[in-house]
Structure formats: structure tokens, C-alpha cells
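Work Package 3 (structural annotation) set out to generate three-dimensional models for the target panel prioritized at the project kickoff. During this period the team completed the workflow that converts sequence records into C-alpha cells, so that structures can be stored uniformly alongside our sequence database. As a representative example, we reproduce one entry of 455 residues exactly as it appears in the project archive.
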Amino acid sequence: MTETLHLAEALLPEGFASHVKLTLEQGVITAVEAGAAAEPGGRNFRGIALPGMPNLHSHAFQRGMAGLSERRGAPEDSFWTWREVMYRFLDRLDPDDVQAIAAQAFVEMLEGGFTALAEFHYLHHDKDGRPYANIAAMGQAIASAAAETGLGLTLLPVLYRFGNFGQAPAVHGQRRFVNERDAYQRLLEGSAAAIRDLPDARLGVAPHSLRAVALDDLGWVSSLRPNDPVHIHVAEQVPEVEASLKITGRRPVELLMDTVPLDQRWCLIHATHLSDAERDGIALSGAVAGLCPITESSLGDGIFDGIRYAQAGGAYGVGSDSNIQIDAGAELRQLEYSQRLRDRRRALFAEEEASTGLALWQAACAGGAQACGRAIGRIAPGHRADFITLDTDHPALVGRAGAEAVDSAIFAANALPLRDVVVGGRSVVAEGRHIARDSVRVRFAGVMRRLLAAA
């Protein structure tokens, strides 16, 4: 069915334009016309329309444990003590719990400017580590939450075989993650069935990390779906780098690049601790650096060398990862501020005399779309009609237009000041509220009260 939408102002690939008419066919933009009159009674959107931001990395179930890991561990706290809290939390979850928690996270993603998600999905099995009758039951829970909320989905079932470098056995807390190759192939088949009825959904693969798979798994798993995205955690923590050097003699990204040919299908999540050669190698490969600035700050990971990576032509996007705070603008702000704190300079991602916020938004949309493997991230023909509108009546945006409004939305508002969110032509957020916010929240609250009471 053909329909038309009218945007008062919109960011198009060539820049900002006024009075933009979009023609859609089954949720895909087929034509864009600037300077077109609004149609009385039509679907007309106020404010400033931006391409919706793809969220290139999330573990949806972790939204339920947000705030539960802030008690200091002994003798000190780190990513590794946080991981133990995570293992204890996921011990309690069944597929219905995961669906309720994911739906809450997805509502918050949509209200926070994210219109698509690459879900790095490693919680597969029952509480004793045995597969469910449907090995993809947990993936089905993620898909059902996406269907309920309208969030675009790239599902990335994770291959997880070992507990650490050197093919160390998985520990007790990892038992719900582990599959051997034959089981993983069945998991992929079940995951494909889970997303079959979702509009424009995509399936990819994800070797969890160099700690959790054998080196020969990397080529094998990436060959299972040769035209689809491949995501991997890499070089997030200094101890990970040290362990890789000790056991393999090579740094993690160096080892990865020596083992498989990186290309535009690949998304390297975190990639925080890099040598200059590793950083430039990722940029030259065409792979995407998947940055999660809020989570990386929370976990004390370190600071990605974003400025020199961008100067080398590297593609990047942002993800909400542990989902402790879900807001596309906040991720971009934290990314820029981390570089400012390290280098003691300002406006680092922008070209001279250009907008920092606009540079960040456009680059992260492009990198996120590539990582999701979907035609999103642009208001242009051939792309899904995924966009947000900024609320120009918000105090942070009053009197602002164009790039200045984008800067203000990212750097001067407590949360991204949204009015509307449209995904595939469907309105899912109006006046800043998701259409299913209340029902999703009630179900989420019931699940969390039960889970925490039983802790």
C-alpha cells in the first residue's frame, strides 16, 4: 500500500530541507520531495526529523539488573566482579521474564531515539544449562518483544564454547550460553524461524569473543550466513589483552585480523585497547567499531581512540549494551566527552566550523546501519521509513533549527527531546510516549518484583 508523510523539516543525505514529502511502499521510502505542501488531514509531523539511530549492541535481559551492580566488590570492583553479579541475575530468568524485560528495554530504546537494534543474544538455555525443547526459545522471546514494541531487529545468536583463552572449560555461570557447533546450527535455524514474521528483520552470527571460541570457529561461524552481519566482543579489558598475549603471543585484534579477513560484515564491539596498527587495521578493513560509551564508562573499560580512528576513515556506531541508561543522544555525548577528557580539547568529532552533534549523529547512523545489515539510517529512497522528530518546543531547542538543534538535543537536554518516532512507516512514539508504554511497564514491574523478592 502506498502512503505519504509530510515532515516540517528533515535531515536528508544532502542536508536539512523544509516541507519534505515522503512516499512509502510497505514501510520503505520510494520518493522524497522537498518543498512540498502538507496535505490537510494527512500524516504531518512537526519538529525536526532525523534518521532513527540504530542500536548496534545490546543484551536486553540486562535491563532488569540495571543498578544492582553498584555495591563495591572485594577487594576491588571491576568488569569481572560485575560479571559475577550478571551471572547470578540471569540464573533466575525464563523466556517469559526475558520477553517482559526486553519489551521494557525496547520501549525505552524507541523513546530514546533508537529505531533498530542488533541484539547480541547469548542467553540461550534453561537454568540447568540444558536446551529448551525449542532451542531458540529465548530468541523467540526477543523477537516477540520486538513485534510488540515495533523496534526493528537484527538478531545475533551468539556462539559460546569456552570459558577463557586456551579453550578453558566454561564456568558454572556460563552454562546457559554454551553450544557446540551442531547445536549452534540448530539454534540458527530456530532463530530464523523466530524472526520470520517480523518486518525487515535480519539474522546474523556472533562468536562471543576470542575467549569463548576456538580460532577455527571464527571462519566456520562467519561462513554459515556469508551475506549477513558478524559481531564479536574484542579488546574490551586490559586483562583480556594480557591473557591473549600470554597464551597466543598476539593482541586480540591482531589475532583476529591474522585469523579471518575482516570486511564490512564485521562489527568489533568495544575494541577499546588497541595498538596503532590494530586501530588503523580496523579502519582500513571497512569493519565497524561498535562503541558503547555509557556501559564502557560504567564498567571502567577505558576510552576508545575515537578521534584517530575517525581520522583514519573508520566506521563506528553506538549501542546501549548493558542498558543501564538508554538514550541515543547520551551515548553520543559520552563518546565525545570521553575524548575531550583524555585530550583536554573540545568538539573533537567535528570538522572545523562544523557541528559536533550532527557529525556524531550521521556517522553513528551510517555505522549502525552497516552493523545491522539493513537499509536504515538515512531518510532516502530505498531505506526503511525510520525516523524521529525533535521537539522544537522543548526548552533546550527553543529558537534553534538545523544543526544547532541537533547539537542542543545531544549536549543541552537531560534526555533526547523527542516528539515522534516512526519505524517502517508505523508511528510507535507520539508526544514522547510509546504507544504500549503502560502495558509493557506493568508486566515488567510484576516480573521484577517477583525476581527480586526471590533473590
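The longest helix spans residues 95-111.
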